[in-house]
Amino acid sequence: MNHPDQAPRTGASERAQAIADRVEAFVRDVVAPFEHDPRYGSHGPSEEMVHEMRTLARAAGVMTPHILPDGSHLSQRETALVLKRSGLSPLGPVAVNTAAPDEGNMLLLGKVATAEQQARYLAPLVAGEARSAFFMTEPAADGGAGSDPSMLQTTAQRDGDDWVINGRKAFITGAVGARVGIVMAKTSSGEALAATMFLVELPHPAIRVARVLDTIDGAMPGGHAVIEIDNLRVPSRDVLGEVDQGFKYAQVRLSPARLSHCMRWHGAATRAHEIATAYAVRRHAFGKPLIDHEGVGFMLADNLIDLKQAELMIDWCADVLDTGSLGTTESSMTKVAVSDALFRVADRCVQVMGGTGVTRDTIVEQVFREIRAFRIYDGPTEVHKWALAKKIKREASGAHR
């Protein structure tokens, strides 16, 4: 049986297909056995485990597979093929260096950073020798920025040739153990809100981990932390891009990053479907295999439909981004459709497997938890629908003038 992400094989180059095949073989054969490693805890795999997996990935020639040896990036359509395969295990993206937030941070640094900044901050990320963190979201209790960036509370003030940053951040993925940080802070002095991004070498004494949150998901190294920033001094040479252009750069990063999440979790949902299908074929009840009961067989059929529709949405959005468009509308639609569809797939997989589905004997229950969190991360479904509704209203108002 062909996997849902393998048939038909269209829209991707031979080079991308070859890379994706190598990544899939590595994830299935080498990474999947790590899923029951005791070093894989509730806040992700340990640094030792990450290093071990990446050493194996480097030896297999699949480290950072979406970035080519000359530094060029696969197209978004090609990246979709590769990242879906990396996601066949929740640990796959970490092992081959296609995971969030690093994948999105590498894309942003490649587009915006200076040559000197790329040498200091980007090169270690691409080599898989360092991890990174993106410091944007802030604690709700402080009235800080979440899905609404206009609520940004962290500030950066000029002091000679330096900037001094103060504030608190929350849900900062991978901050524990990261060596590269991108900090978003408010820099406007007038009425118009503006923000700037700053590059920071980590760990830094002015950036303190207040606590690591216990969340429903657990695939990301370092987990998700609450951060306190106290008089962080950053030289002007470490401003990422231009001052006051942080919101623009955030869109450069976030639209493709939403799509990358869809790619990776499509792979995870595909693997969960494979496990549930094998269970339904093997397990007998009431005189026949589970899959021969319509209630079960139809759920697996619905999975195939959702996986294929999600794949088509991913490829469509990738094509839009490959035209050079920011694709904010398309990435919002895709994030909503794909996250909801993949959650349905994961939920059905748990249901098909019954009691076994809620145990940690397989990765199905973890995929369910991870994809449930994905429906919130990078913007909850409702926020994206609200943005789409505002666009519909603007276009309708213009059409009736």
From TrEMBL:
GO terms for cellular component: cytoplasm. One of its GO terms (biological process) is fatty acid beta-oxidation using acyl-CoA dehydrogenase. Residues 133-214 form the Acyl-CoA oxidase/dehydrogenase middle domain. GO terms for molecular function: acyl-CoA dehydrogenase activity; flavin adenine dinucleotide binding. It comes from the Bacteria. InterPro entries: Acyl-CoA_dehydrogenase, Acyl-CoA_Oxase/DH_mid-dom, Acyl-CoA_Oxase/DH_mid-dom_sf, AcylCo_DH-like_C, AcylCo_DH/oxidase_C, AcylCoA_DH/ox_N, AcylCoA_DH/ox_N_sf, AcylCoA_DH/oxidase_NM_dom_sf. Residues 13-129 form the Acyl-CoA dehydrogenase/oxidase N-terminal domain. Its cofactor is FAD. Keywords: FAD, Flavoprotein, Oxidoreductase. Residues 244-391 form the Acyl-CoA dehydrogenase/oxidase C-terminal domain. It holds the Pfam family Acyl-CoA_dh_M. Belongs to the acyl-CoA dehydrogenase family. Homodimer. This is Acyl-CoA dehydrogenase. The lineage of its organism: Bacteria, Pseudomonadati, Pseudomonadota, Betaproteobacteria, Burkholderiales.
